[in-house]
Amino acid sequence: MTSNHATQSEQLQDRFGRRIAARLSAGTAELSHDVAERLRAARVQAVARRKPAVIRTATAAAASGGAATLTFGEGQSLWNRIASVLPLIALVAGLFVIQVAQDEHRAHEVAEVDAALLTDDLPPAAYADPGFIQFLKASKD
Asked: How far apart (Å, rounded) are the C-alpha atoms in residues 140 and 136?
């Protein structure tokens, strides 16, 4: 399906190009030889100066069915590869730092509770006694 779509796209581009070329050629019949020769030289210069990267990008977008993708060019250098992997590394490092910070916070909270239990006047077994809850409710009233 994709190759069929690409072939149709190329056929449409070819037809469009032929129509434009026919219109331009039809207009050159009335021009003098000097003007026609200057136009031909200008066309040759324009084709020579065109940017090959733009043409490759347009061809790649047309070949992919018009879908645009984010790439760093065809031949990726080492710096481009590092630049494309760097955000992923930063994300993983950030998640690791968040996990460590949360673990330390939980450990600190548990240590505070343990310290409060051990330094309290009541023994820890009193908190497990079912009658203790009744004692606390009665003392509030």
From this structure: 6
The CA distance from 40 to 25, in Å, is 11
Tally the domains of the chain.
2
The model carries a pTM of 0.38
pLDDT of the chain, 141 residues: tens digit per residue: 556 766 788 888 878 877 877 777 777 777 778 877 888 888 778 777 765 655 555 555 555 555 655 555 555 788 888 888 999 999 999 999 999 999 999 999 999 998 988 888 887 788 788 888 887 788 776
Containing domain of residue 14, as a range?
Answer: 2-69
Query: Among the three residues 16, 43, 69, which one is the final residue of a domain in this structure?
Result: 69
